[in-house]
TrEMBL record:
Name of the protein this chain belongs to: Craniofacial development protein 2-like
Organism superkingdom: Eukaryota
Amino acid sequence: MTPDGESQSHLEDVRPTTIVSTRTTTTIGTWNVRTMYETGKSAQVAAEMRRYNLTILGISEARWTGSEQKRLATGELLLY
């Protein structure tokens, strides 16, 4: 047990994912999407990430409020 009362096995299951490394090439891009409220816009963003082989894409003017994360059906993770 940890001081927080969690079992050690639970903590071992959570492993950080390395996105940026000095041993690999990471492609980063930005895109002014103007709004993410349009139907299919998330799928379009994911398709463009694959098209340009981007690991990280910064999106401006998304017009989403709050902060959350969503996993798309194609596997991409959106953090906002």
